[in-house]
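Milestone M4 deliverable, item 7.
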Amino acid sequence: MAVQPVSVIPSLPSLQSLAAAPVRARTYRHLLYLGLMFPLGIVYFVVLVVGFSISASLVVLLVGLPLLALTLLLVRGFAAVERRLANRLLDADIATPAYPFRSGSVSERVRALLVNRRTWLECGYLLSKFPAGIGAFVLLVTGLTTSLAFIATPAYYDTPGGRVGVFLADPLTVSPSLSVPWGDVLVGIEFAVTVSDWAVDSLGDALAFSVLGAVSLLVTLNLTNLAAWLFRRYTQALLGDPAAARISES
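Output delivered:
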């Protein structure tokens, strides 16, 4: 009797798992992975853009084709690095795919490298690491620096000549309203909320900022875990090999 595979829909994380994010080792592996995305994305982008540009400009001199093949071999090498990083830091469990260009004559190997669909999937993945790395860099730098600065507010809020707090160029006024028709009459409520500067000039305010920073850090770490989960799925889709996975499972 054949057994039908059952698709499992991932459940939402519990409040306990969200609160435990700062004390889990997996969170800091995710932080490391996202921190590496930006420098690696720059390397991939520069190498691939330069390699493809020079190959295209020299193709009429018959030098461009070997350079293109070399660039695509670099793509395969970079993809192998990405698989290893995802397996180590994201618990992705991506199997190494079979490469058809490893056997045959030189012309057959070059042709297999150029026309293989996996080569160009890996190329697109590596190029996408540059904008994704920028987003990860902004998330980590903005979230972590702001959170840690807020947490440490009690240590430096009373520094002579210093000014700590939230300072807006102009007060921000928000006027939410709600209206409900009642016969021929429109009944509604509206109120205004004005947000102005918040200067920290007491230990109580500093402790409030510290608590706000702890909440911000918790949110940042959970956003990091979410981004890592999304990128694990993305990496498995583009760099994984279903055929290799089936062979490894059998």
